[in-house]
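Hi R.,

Here's the chain you asked about this morning:
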Amino acid sequence: MANLLSRVFENQSVTVAERHIPEGADNLICLIENGEVIATSPFWPLAQSFLMVNSDRYRTGTQQSNIGNFPDVLTGLDEVEFTVCGFPQSNKEKLLSVLISRFIEYRALESEAGTFHATFQRLSRLDDEYGTKQIYEWLGESDVETHVYGIRDDPTAVKDIDVTIHNGSSLAYHRSWVVLFQPPAERCTERDCDGPVALVAVEIDDNVWRGLWTYDADRVSRLKSHLTHVF
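And the predicted structure, written out as tokens:
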């Protein structure tokens, strides 16, 4: 168990250690910060949603909406900077950012209100990936104000999805990975109240991304302002 997690985080600023505790739940994963346990997740759901799958599950399927399984020990890694590589350099590193992106999309869907923004580099990806397209169709049918950003590499891309499209060809469109959700202003803005959340990353090399995610309302607001002014 520890070996699986260690391989995933071996290039990150996350330390994985295994401890045998005489009493307590079996195979429980704990997220510890400054000596305090801030989140826990059973090992098997973590394995099913992350350790034993690849990113194709999130591109082609929508099962996550049915099981609601975004382990707290992963979503709780906010404000931790990651540098992740995609396939073929790594089978797992980029999956963490893909999972968090899906987590933010479902938070918007479950809220059924608010504002959602996502960058895609190429808009045709929304048509190429069935699972992704299905989620954005759901967002387009909801009361969530949904904005999608990307290079229009296919004139017919996204034509059947009822979202606001922003297209361009600047460096920001080529290198940005942003998924952002803000609930309505009158709602609770704390994490436990399904408040704002954003993932932001920049491609620093071919298929190599550096970024983090945050639940901080001010940081999410500043990122949204940056999106609307730069893209």
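The two ends are 43 Å apart (CA to CA).

Let me know if you need anything else.
M.
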